[in-house]
């Protein structure tokens, strides 16, 4: 194998690309492309995609890495009996290594041509779905090994390659929770429920038909456990959670699945007992400590909850959700300056935390800092356009500044995102009332003085 590599390296005519640097994000894999250089930075790739014949061949670096990884896997599955397969493997591996390490200048023109040929073959064989299946298989195997960080990479690759993939979305939510990314995990599960409303019911139906559960398959148990909880089969969810914890006694999904099911069954004392037992044996699990704080918050024990949230931060100083929950406690206690400090810390750690932006806006409005509050509501919408709270609060602000037309648009967005909420309906009616009775059909620009007349009730994102 080593001699083959040496021969290949000697035969290659190394062409350094003047444009190639760490900012390169993709390349064109069209065999018929006339462009001299195949590597592109963001702007160059966008411009090159305008060339009709190349549009579908412009690939991001991580997509190309995945193609190479799949080709290497396929060759290894064939046991490398033939010499030509050995040569292929010797070609793939150094290219993949250079891509991984962003050593783009070490990739030769011959390497690029080789990549183009292989991609063309894949296209003709329609093997793109096989690559997705490969990632899914690898990701599930890594979950079985409890290698959460590496599993995350594979499911992230699937979501980039194939945005409409419900299984990838589910396992991303599961993995992120294991990695203490509670907020991101929750968003993934909510996105799954929004885009695939019958996902969990379908899993239960499939399980019922098959009538077989592999009691040692962690990935399958996690899927069934979540499905049972989401379909309110709490007793069965507890049984599956117990089995998950037998395989992995530190599994956060299993622990929270059990505690959450007990809470839904109103077995609060047992839930607290399970939680306390978990904390005794998992003292470094900041997410469990956070969950204990949430339980105390629900019981109105705010001081004790604050202690647990601060403890979670001591264990993991970059735990954005812990700062966010402390901020919400201060907000509930009308300690608005303290709340803003912790919302800012949340945003520093997670710049796309829509809930933190929204609730910071609520705090700022209480301090009569209306312009800053309005900016926060806009950032909440930018961070998560599907979150109704930002739309509602921005709409209410626009009403008080007599910007009724834009207010109706925002409030209608909030209503579409949450049709069961009556507050946007009332505010929409109020806006139409002012439009009709005051004949205000033109949206005025926001006036600093008008902000000081704001007295509407804000919609705070719940804990």
From TrEMBL:
UniProt keywords, alphabetically: Repeat, TPR repeat
InterPro entries according to UniProt: TPR-like_helical_dom_sf, TPR_2, TPR_rpt, Ycf3/AcsC/BcsC/TPR_MFPF
Alphabetized SMART domains for the sequence: TPR (SM00028)
TPR repeat start-end pairs: 286-319, 320-353, 354-387
Name of a matching Pfam family: TPR_11
Transmembrane region(s): none
PANTHER family linked to this entry: CELLULOSE SYNTHASE OPERON PROTEIN C (PTHR44943), TPR REPEAT-CONTAINING PROTEIN MJ0798 (PTHR44943:SF4)
Name of the protein in its database record: Uncharacterized protein
High-level lineage: Eukaryota, Sar, Alveolata, Ciliophora, Intramacronucleata
